[in-house]
Amino acid sequence: MSSSSRTTASGSTWHTPRNSSLHSSGYTPRRTCDKKGILLVEDNPDDVDLTLRAFKKANITNEVVVAKDGVEALDYLFGTGAHEGKRNELPQVVLLDLKLPRVNGMEVLRRIRADRRTRFLPVVILTSSCEEQDLVRTYELGVSSYVQKPVDFNQFMNAAHQLGLYWLVLNLAPRSEES
Fold first, then answer.
1. Which CATH superfamily is domain 34-170 in?
2. pTM, 2 dp
């Protein structure tokens, strides 16, 4: 049985046997090779700076869009308010704080999951909260992951590196539905 192979931009190689049912059905494994952005929803400028520094040190070069509150995040994602009429490309991942002004992180997550265009968008809670009720509620709302921000600088740098590696390189997510 012969096979075809394809090497992606990330260096991954897919092998598909030519006579397999996958090949004959027209199925091609999809790796996300596009370098999509990150939406960082964080109101604390020190945490924004620390996150951006950690990404730079970890060689994460994806564009980072920063929303300072829940309203800015929702406007960016859904093309409303300050982003009215703009078709922003959905980010590859949303890093979302819980304690935000105007609209809190729980409500942002609820609205993301309620809309068919964003329901599969990976959302990682990145927060200082270690409250069990926050953890449980975010998982009930469909969060992809919950990470407590490390207080130690080196631990934070390591956490940012691990988040970037997993969500930007390893994780595969379904394509978003168009509006």
1. Response regulator (3.40.50.2300)
2. 0.77
